[in-house]
Specification:
five-stranded mixed β-sheet; globular; about 170 residues
């Protein structure tokens, strides 16, 4: 999927920036932005798992923020933009609190394929698509415009050299 809407693409690019910030800080490369129905950014965060709490995903932090600051009606009119497809924990939380659409830069299937290609452990949770966990949540993506950059961040996270560097 290629985005033609500059606002949507801008929010996705911000997610990629947050993913890079996370990786630079020693966390996994994930970032997310919560936007209201008028296009205003309400909240954003990045992955923060390096402190030992493996549930410190930006998508879950967005859920927690939204519950504290938005009515259930307002939550339903939001969009979550994210650098990577929600894990099952975050998908379920998103659905339980009634957040709106999700726009993903990279799918779990894409990440799983990259990890398999690089012989990297996929982690302790099955990479289920959001629709299998939260079938009523509308999901758009992946976003081709940022695929290469996200692949590069995940490759760096795996401790592998940049693919553009020939050996």
């Amino acid at each position: 999927m290629t985005f033609s809407d500059s606002d949507d693409l801008g929010h996705i690019r911000r997610c990629v920036e947050l993913a890079r910030e996370a990786l630079d800080a020693g966390d996994k490369p994930f970032g997310s932005v919560l936007v209201d129905d008028e296009g205003r950014v309400l909240f954003e965060d990045r992955n923060r798992v390096s402190g030992g709490d493996s549930t410190r995903h930006p998508e879950l932090t967005i859920v927690e923020w939204a519950v504290q600051h938005l009515s259930s009606e307002a939550r339903g009119r939001t969009t979550v933009y994210t650098s990577g497809e929600h894990c099952p924990m975050c998908s379920a939380a998103h659905a339980w609190v009634g957040l709106g659409d999700i726009v993903i830069a990279v799918t779990s299937a894409q990440l799983a394929a990259w990890q398999q290609e690089w012989n990297v452990d996929p982690g302790p949770v099955a990479p289920l698509p959001i629709g299998q966990v939260a079938p009523l949540v509308r999901v758009r993506g992946p976003i081709a415009d940022v695929r290469t950059e996200m692949r590069s961040l995940h490759r760096r996270n795996a401790g592998l050299p940049d693919e553009s560097v020939s050996g």
